[in-house]
Structures are given as C-alpha cells and as structure tokens.
DNA sequence: CAGTTACGCTACGGGTCGTAGCGTAAGAGC
DNA sequence: GCTCTTACGCTACGACCCGTAGCGTAACTG
C-alpha cells in the first residue's frame, strides 16, 4: 500500500484530473534507485524527477520535503517483513533479527534510514511519519512473536488489568529497542554483517534475558 | 585531547606561524553551540565561523568537510565517559547505560550523531574518523566493565589462546552493539528518556543473557 | 459541454558548499 | 634584528541544490 500523501485530503476529491498512481510508483522506484546510486548525500529531487521521467514540480505536489519522499520510498521495503512461525521463541527471534539485518544491509535503507532519523530530531512531523511508515511495521513482528511465545507457554501471559497492559507495552518497547537498535548499530556503526551465528547469539541473550525479567 | 586535523602532517611542521589552539577550541565550541541552536539541518560552516569570530576559510584549513568538523566537535563529549566501580556487573551495566543515555539526550549529540553516521555509509574516511573519535571511546567502558566482572568471578575469564581472544573480541562487540544500539534507538527513534528504571531493566536482560552465552 | 485538478515546463530567489587570490599577522630559525 | 614559512582574514566566486511561481496543457468528472 502507498502511504498517505501529504497534500491529499482525507475526504476523496471527486472532481478534476486524478493523481496518476503510475507516477507515484515511478517516483518511489526512482527514489530508491537514486539512493542506491548516490546515497543520501548526493540524492537530489531533480535527479529523482529525471529518473522517473517526471517534472520536479510533480514531486513537490506530493511531498513537501525530500526527507518525506525518502521515508515513503523506503517504507514499502518494510512491508516485506513477516514472521513465519518457526516453532520456538528462540527461532522466532533469530528470524526477526535476520530479517532486520537483511533489510538494513540493502543500500537504500542503509543510506536513508539514519539520515531521516537524524532530521527527525528537529522535525516532529517527520518523526511521526517515520513512526507510522516504518517503526510500526517493525514493531508488528515483535508483538506477534511475543503473542506466539505466550501461547506456547514460553512467556507468561499479560495480566488483563490496566497496569498489566501498560507493563506489556513497555516490555514490547524495550524488546523492540534492543532488537532494532542492536541490528542497526551492528550494520551501520560497527559495519559488520548480520549472519546466522551472530543472530543466534543475540537471540540467546534476549531469550535468557527475558526469562529473568520477573 | 583534540583529534588529528586532516591537513596536519604526521611530522611536525617546525617553521612558520603555528595554528592557534585557541582558535581550535573556539571553533569546536561554536560548532557545538550551533548544533544546539540549529540542529544538523541548518548547521552551516559560515554560521560556525561567525560564532567563533573566525574566517570561514580557517575552518576549511582544518577540516575538509563539515561532517568531519562535527565529528570532532561531538567527540570531546565522549571523553567525559567513565565507569566507576559500582561493585557488581549489574550496577556497572546500569552505569554505562545511564551514561550513554545522558550523553545522547544532549541536543548536540542528538542532532549530530545519526547525521554523521548516515553520511559515513558512503564515506569510508568519515566512518574511520567516527570509529576512532567516538566509537572506541564508548567501547572502552564495555571492555573495562567486562574485565572487572571477570575479576569478581561474575564472568568466566577469557582463554589465553588465540581463538579465545577472538571470541572475547566478538563478545565485546556484541555487548557493545546491544548497549549502544539500544540506547540510541530508545533515544532517537522511540524518542523516550533513558531513566533509571529502564536502565535497570535493560541491564537485567543483559546480565541474564550473558550468563546464558555458553 | 464546463469545471476542476494534475502535469510539464521554464525561470527564479535564496541559500550553502568549498575554493581562489591576495594582503597581512605571527611565529621559527639564523 | 632579519628572513622564511605558515596561518589568518577578507572578498569574491562558481557550482549546486532547494523549493516556489506562473502559465499553458492534459485528463477526468458531472
């Protein structure tokens, strides 16, 4: 699915020439290609427009700033994330880690992700866009894996009361920060690959660690 | 200490007017102030020069690119990191987490760190500069904390052979990615504070997790 | 058909990067 | 003291990019 465009109203416009979805796709494809070829530093709106065979003004009718375009261009890659049931919490965590790792080793995401996060520190709207377009898609997997582990009895169920729900949300957030943060750091700062051996060790740490979290 | 300037030769220049160390400091101070006020996006070399009371060309005689200046400006903050012995591995990990957290909550680091990491994905020289100026300073604490835990008997000592040393280095790298990555993600992506409760939970996970790492 | 919106195109203002050239200031070595 | 060498300030500049304005045309709705 395509994320909400900034200039589109919630209520559908019924009249006039409609936006070309083909153009939408061409722009996002061109943006990813430009990220691969140029990285974030030399990525320019004019270049993306040329690659997409589209006027530069057409880009600005859809996205107010280039960082928003980049978020949407990269976000679709996070839709590919899924978490098949591998039978145990340990195996499921390894699966998530490897999925994040593979995604972050792609040059598009490697070039774009930290750049937009950096700009989001001084741009609340961008931070929200990143949250809904990218972060929530990752968090899904954590929530899903945790539910499965609870069904298997590997993790205790959440208390149904209000405090229990809040504690559960905090735990999910913590786990998510650990997994996503560690994989990002490994890939972008340490600049080393996320292979199966490393994923297994990280999964082991998390598994044992979660058991000790009262 | 001040990191190596890009235009300075390894062998000391003996003749001519020496670089003003006072100017060095003024520029780095101005750069941090500019990061606080403007963030990375509006940070400009001309602005830094004006704040430092210095010509813009003087900046470029010391740093080839603005990202390198920013790395050096932020790097000195990481010199403040230290790890007093708190008596147990659990307490020491909490200490590291809180230190990283406090550092990353400062607006200078928040604005600069991810920006330069993003640019380092397409700039090997910058990546190396980040490594020596920032990453190694953080890693120190992990190495130190681990050694203390081994002296206390909380962690098994490293085998003295070659494979043992390599495994130890990998483990240190993994722990470091977990701690630094998780704190960064918490601070910059989830945009939530690193408080003592959260630090304790993360430390607990790590402590239990390390125990289970064969 | 008319009305409305999307699109392409050109041109532009404002801003930043990073450099060149020149005259001057400040030390090192004699 | 003097000379040599380098740092510094200043001005100007080319190149590039962002994001916008204006206008004519295309496409779709009712």
UniProtKB/TrEMBL annotation, chains A, B:
GO molecular function per UniProt: DNA-binding transcription factor activity; transcription cis-regulatory region binding
Key word Transcription present: yes
Pfam families: TetR_C_11, TetR_N
PANTHER family named in the record: HTH-TYPE TRANSCRIPTIONAL REGULATOR RUTR (PTHR30055), TRANSCRIPTIONAL REGULATORY PROTEIN (PROBABLY TETR-FAMILY)-RELATED (PTHR30055:SF230)
Region feature (Disordered): 1-21
UniProt keyword list: DNA-binding, Transcription, Transcription regulation
DNA-binding positions: 44-63
InterPro entries: Homeodomain-like_sf, HTH-type_TetR-like_transc_reg, HTH_TetR, Tet_transcr_reg_TetR-rel_C_sf, TetR_C
UniProt lineage: Bacteria, Bacillati, Actinomycetota, Actinomycetes, Kitasatosporales
Protein known as: TetR/AcrR family transcriptional regulator
Ranges of residues in domain HTH tetR-type: 21-81
């Amino acid at each position: 699915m395509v994320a909400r465009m900034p200039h589109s109203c919630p209520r559908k416009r019924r009249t006039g020439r409609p936006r070309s979805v083909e153009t939408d796709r061409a722009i996002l494809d061109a943006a990813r290609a430009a990220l691969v070829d140029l990285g974030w530093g030399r990525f320019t709106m004019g270049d993306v427009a040329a690659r997409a065979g589209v006027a530069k003004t057409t880009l600005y009718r859809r996205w107010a700033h280039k960082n928003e375009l980049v978020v949407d261009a990269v976000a679709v890659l996070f839709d590919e994330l899924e978490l098949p049931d591998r039978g145990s919490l340990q195996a499921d965590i390894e699966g998530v880690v490897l999925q994040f790792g593979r995604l972050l080793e792609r040059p598009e995401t490697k070039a774009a992700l930290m750049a937009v996060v950096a700009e989001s520190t001084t741009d609340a709207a961008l931070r929200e866009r990143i949250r809904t377009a990218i972060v929530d898609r990752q968090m899904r997997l954590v929530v899903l894996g945790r539910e499965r582990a609870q069904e298997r009895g590997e993790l205790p169920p959440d208390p149904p009361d209000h405090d229990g729900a809040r504690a559960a949300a905090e735990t999910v957030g913590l786990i998510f920060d650990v997994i996503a943060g560690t994989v990002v750091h490994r890939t972008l700062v340490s600049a080393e690959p996320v292979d199966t051996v490393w994923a297994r060790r990280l999964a082991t740490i998390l598994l044992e660690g979660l058991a000790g979290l009262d």
